[in-house]
Design goal:
This protein has 204 residues and is mainly alpha-helical. The protein has helices at residues 20-45, 52-57, 65-86, 100-110, 113-126, 175-178, 182-189, 195-203; strands spanning 131-137, 143-149, 162-168. Helix 1 packs antiparallel against helix 3 and helix 5 (113-126) packs antiparallel against helix 7 (182-189).
């Protein structure tokens, strides 16, 4: 089912990390538009009943190139934002560090959570133009980091990875408040990322 993630908090609840105007524009305008357009394209392609993940994994099955491109872009915009907004919580409510199996895997591969955060922030800062930085789970339980341009994600890129955390580096995610200071936005964002969501995705 194609459904926009509903925020469980007020538009000003992420302040001072993300201001109300950014939340209202990002979620209320951009994400809503991706959701509506993707829903229309899914109907046009006769793919109702399939999940966004399934559609993006099987884009090659869509013969019409224009429709295929639209599904990739709009479906990515829809799904990526669902993943992004689901992991955000007001600073006082967010779980600020992972535990359990996810923490153990992070320590095994990266040495520390701080080292992983530095890598993800570096990928996001280095992404030319719009895009995303990702922490993903491989089928064997190992963690992989990657960056993607535009609205691409691990599914549309043909990987077997499952996203468990993402950083949005499109300008609409931060520019009203941070202007061109993308690195400052990325650093601050971790104050409102809820690691409990990433743990659930990793263990699911």
């Amino acid at each position: 089912m194609i459904k926009q993630y509903e925020l469980p908090f007020a538009s000003n609840a992420l302040e001072p990390v993300i201001d109300a105007a950014t939340v209202e524009t990002h979620h209320g305008k951009h994400h809503a538009a991706y959701t509506k357009t993707f829903t229309d394209l899914v109907a046009k392609a006769g793919l109702e009943g399939k999940s966004a993940e399934e559609i993006l994994k099987n884009l090659d099955a869509v013969a019409d190139e224009t429709l295929r491109t639209g599904l990739r872009n709009q479906g990515g915009g829809y799904l990526n934002h669902n993943i992004y907004f689901e992991q955000l919580r007001p600073e006082a409510e967010a779980k600020h560090a992972p535990e359990g199996a996810l923490l153990a895997q992070i320590q095994k591969q990266y040495g520390s959570v701080d080292a992983l955060i530095e890598e993800l922030n570096g990928l996001g800062a280095a992404q030319f133009g719009s895009g995303w930085s990702w922490l993903c789970k491989a089928p064997d339980g190992t963690l992989k980091t990657m960056k993607t341009p535009n609205q691409d994600n691990p599914y549309s890129c043909g990987t077997d990875l499952v996203p468990i955390l993402t950083l949005d580096v499109w300008e609409h995610a931060y520019y009203l408040q941070y202007r061109n200071r993308r690195a400052d936005y990325l650093k601050a964002l971790w104050r409102i990322i809820d690691w409990a969501v990433a743990e659930k995705r990793y263990e699911g």
